[in-house]
Amino acid sequence: MLWRTIRTMDVMMHSSCFLLPKLHQPANKPVMNYALVVLNQQLPRFMPRLWAQANLRICADGGANRIFDEMFHMTNDEDEKSTRNRYVPEIIEGDMDSIRPEVKLFYSSQGSKISDKSHNQETTDLHKCISRIHLRTPDHEKPNLCVLVTGALGGRFDHEAANINVLYLFSDMRIVLLSDDCLIRLLPKTHHHELYIESSVEGPHCGLFPVGAPSTSTTTTGLKWNLRG
Question: Which of 93, 153, 193, 208 is the most exposed place for a label (fewest CB within 10 A)?
Answer without folding.
Answer: 208
